[in-house]
User: Fold this.
Amino acid sequence: MGTRADIKIRAWRAGAGLALLVASCGTTPAPATPSNAVVIAHRGASGYLPEHTLEAYTVAWEMDADFLEPDLVMCRDGHLICSHDLTMTERSNAALLYPDLADSDGKVWIKDLFLAELRMVEVTNEEGEGSYRYATLEELLGLVQLLSARTGEKVGLIPELKAPAWHRSIGLPMEGALMEALARGGYLSRGDPVVIQCFDRDSLQRMRAEHGCTFPLVLCLRREPLGDDLGWAAEHCEGVAPHRKSIEDPETGVKTELITRAHELGLSVFPYTFGDEQEAMRRFIYQYGVEGVFTDYPDKGVAARGRP
Ligand code: G3P
Ligand code: CA
Assistant:
C-alpha cells in the first residue's frame, strides 16, 4: 500500500526534504519547486471541529494532511486516550456524570475513569453545540485503517505522550502501551509512517532502549529551549518540534538561529502551532526551510506548501 507520508519521511531522514529557500520581501514568492514539508494536523482539523475527535481526524484526512497528531493521556485501565489535557474538558458532562470524581475545581481526571466510564461522556463544540466523544488511540488507528483501505493511502501518525513521568508515577506507564497499540494498528517498523514526539527526554529514551522503537523521534521544545536541547536531540532523535516563536521573534519578525543550528546538527524542524495562517506557514516552509508544520487548519497548510 502506498503511503501519503512515507516518501516525505524518507526525504527528510535523508536530508533531502529541506524546502527551497527563497528571498523574503513581503509575501513569500511562489517556489519553482514545491517543498516536501509535511502538514501535520494538530489534534486533527481542530480549527474546524472539536480537537482530538474522530470527526476532526477524518476531516484532516480529507484535507490531505500528511500526519495526524494525537496527544495521548492514559485512563484508569491503561487505555491511551486522545487528549491534550489530563482532565476532562469543561465542554463535557463528565462532572455531571461522575460528581464523586470531581476535584475541588470541579474537574474530572482522565486517570480516574475506566474506559467504559469515559465512553459515556459527551463533549460539545465551543458554542455548546453537537455531541462528540473522546477517541482512544485504538479507535484512531481503526479509523486510519478504514480510510487507508478505502483510498489505498496510509496517513502518517505523530503521537505525543503527555506527562509520561507523571503517568508512570501513578502506575500507568505509557511507552510500551503506545508501541503495542501501534503494532496492532499495523505500524510496525521504521518504514511505516509514524513519528513519536514528546517533551520528555527520558520517555523518548525509554521508547528506544526499553521498547525497541525504531520510529523517528522528535523532541518537543518549550517556548524558551534549554541550552542543550538541540545537542541532546541530535544524539537521540531525528527532529525537534520548537515553538514557532523560538524560530521567528514575534516582536521583530526576525528569524532566530534555531533552524540553522538544528539543520547543522542534522535535525528536521517541525514548528508548532499555526492557525488559519497560510502566509505564515508559507514563510516558514519556503523562507525558513522547515520540514513540516503543526496546524489546526490542515487545508491551509496544504495550500501554503502546494503540491510536492
Ligand atoms: O506537539 C507539538 C505541539 O502540539 C505541542 O504543543 O501543547 O499543542 O501539545 P501542544
Ligand atoms: Ca502536541
Q: What stands out?
A: The first helix runs from residue 6 to 13.
